Description:
The protein has three domains: 9-61, Recoverin, domain 1, CATH 1.10.238; 81-258, Rossmann fold, CATH 3.40.50.300; 264-358. It is 43% helix and 14% strand. It has helices at residues 9-20, 26-36, 40-46, 63-73, 100-109, 125-136, 151-155, 171-178, 198-201, 247-250, 264-278, 283-301, 311-324, 327-334, 336-339, 344-358, and strands at residues 23-25, 51-53, 56-58, 115-118, 140-144, 156-161, 164-169, 181-185, 206-208, 213-215, 222-227, 255-258.
Amino acid sequence: xxxxxxxxxxxxxxxxxxxxxxxxxxxxxxxxxxxxxxxxxxxxxxxxxxxxxxxxxxxxxxxxxxxxxxxxxxxxxxxxxxxxxxxxxxxxxxxxxxxxxxxxxxxxxxxxxxxxxxxxxxxxxxxxxxxxxxxxxxxxxxxxxxxxxxxxxxxxxxxxxxxxxxxxxxxxxxxxxxxxxxxxxxxxxxxxxxxxxxxxxxxxxxxxxxxxxxxxxxxxxxxxxxxxxxxxxxxxxxxxxxxxxxxxxxxxxxxxxxxxxxxxxxxxxxxxxxxxxxxxxxxxxxxxxxxxxxxxxxxxxxxxxxxxxxxxxxxxxxxxxxxxxxxxxxxxxxxxxxxxxxxxxxxxxxxxxxxxxxxxxxxxxxx
Length: 367
């Protein structure tokens, strides 16, 4: 009868680790068994939980730990897509102009037709896309692009949630699966990492190599990009940080809209709506403000000055006017720095206007 030395589980583990380290093979276990006159089956049964493959063991990795990793790898997104309603809210102050009607037709068609919108800053490119989706009750996912934006930001990646590593869809994947409009805002700030969207811009979906899953676009999905340049960089240095985009990438946008600042009549309606919403009733102030912006822009286009007044800047001035209740004071905080960079003609025009308005508000104090 064969005599077998009895060893506890702890003694077997300590002995294996002392002789072979944390990782060892079946040949090592057989050698350990010969040295200690113990049956191979007895040892392998006691270290079963450390098995990482046929004839391989790792004392630092348990079967349970491996199962948890696999479970985390196949886990669903952190937040299911059905929870959120991504339809933008309608803004009563919005006034359509420029390529809005054409843009709305593209979205309404639900056909995949990537669209590129370019134009100077603050002229309502992004706002127009949002309001087109709001009027059509289409979901919109907006992604603000920077030089640091990469594949993980766009497509998704693994995130640590409650101690577990789970896959979290990026905004592009969410838009693909929901059939939403994907708005890539300020896309000319992107680096070459944006090329991970090449297949998506062809309407073919994308393969997520990190989880081995192919995502096809749901009907209605489309991509709209906005930029201050046309993807060729900024030669005059006005838009620092913009980059020259890959030509093959730009070719995947079949249509480009060049949006200009709204005409005087439209801009008066825009500022009038904002003013009414803020309780500002001085129509003369709005009219003069629009005239000033128009003069600045004409001088800019003629090469007389290097700065321009955007519609967004005019809206800021109206908001400041509603806060401070006095025109001279809000210009001190909002646009004095910009005015000082303008031509003497425009500055003189504003000075006369300020003096005119001052006569109407002498009873107001600066307190």
